[in-house]
Amino acid sequence: MDFLMLIKYILLGLLQGFTEPIPVSSSGHLVLAQHFLGLNIEGFSFELLMNAGSLIAVLLVYKNDIFRLAVNGLSYVTSKNEKGKADFRFIIYLIIATIPAGVIGVLFDDEISAFFKDGVRITAVTLLITGLALFLIRNLRGRKNDGEIRLRDAVIIGLSQMVALVPGISRSGATIVPAMALGLKSETALRFSFLLYIPVSLGGTILSITDIFHDPRLGELFLPYLFAFIASIIATYFSLRWFMNIMAKGNLVYFSIYCFVIGIAVLIFA
Question: Closest by alpha carbon to 7, among 33, 28, 45?
């Protein structure tokens, strides 16, 4: 394993980590980056590791929210404490919204990933779709807080998350766009989106962990995988913190422009 190859893998980890939280599709960028870096990563163990790295970062960022939801939700279940009712309902809606993508992911994730593995042009088109969706909600300012989310909102957001199984469709974009269209405040939409990401990502990682250990090239690529994994954690953590500030200011239009530019450039030059 030469030094240049190690650098390429670290770049992939940084790219995946940076693009995971923001609505520009990390999976789509991985497809494009592998194409332009001349890498052909077989199987899905690398993507799974990068996803696990991003999951760790999201858990770190939202640890206080997770703790609050767990404590208040348990308090409501055990003692019917009214102070915990809103958080308990929030948890129930997260579970409901998790089901569609969770079921489709378990049943068809390998087939979907294999179908789009080399879909550079498909990724370009889906980036353009992501850009259009972000452009349409660029001026929306919702009013719903965490406690005002309804069952209909959770179902629609959950169904929308299924679309993100296709490379180029951003997972955060696929959930934040409908959430804001349904009237959720930007910070509520962001929180719901990433708390929703946790069970889906965790479930996928657990179900696919054997793929990582059965990767025939794991021994050869252990160091590149390790450095990319660490890079993914660090990049996701700081990218999510940055994106939280962007959402607070309502500047999603910049991501829309970026998706348009990259999508068109790939269609022309790839």
Answer: 33
Structural domain count of the chain:
1
Amino acid, single-letter form, for residue 253: V
**4 Cβ partners below 8 Å, 6+ apart?**
none
Q: What's the predicted TM-score (pTM) here?
A: 0.89
Range of the domain at 114: 3-269
The pLDDT of residue 249 is 84
Of 92, 158, 168, the residue nearest 124 (C-alpha): 168
Cα-to-chain-centroid distance, residue 231 = 16
- DSSP-assigned letters across all residues of 27-94: HHHHHHHHHHHT----SSHHHHHHHHHHHHHHHHHTHHHHHHHHHHHHHHHHH--GGGHHHHHHHHHH
Which helix (H) or strand (E) element contains residue 210? helix 186-213
Question: Tokens 């609505």 correspond to what residue?
Answer: 23
Q: For the chain, how long is the longest CA-to-CA vector? A: 61
Name the stretches of the chain with pLDDT < 50.
Answer: none
The gap from C-alpha 181 to its chain's centroid, in whole angstroms, comes to 19
- The pLDDT, as a whole number, for residue 188 is 93
CA 266/CA 160 separation, integer angstroms: 25
Residue pLDDT, tens place only, 43-54: 668 888 899 999
CA distance 137 to 122: 23
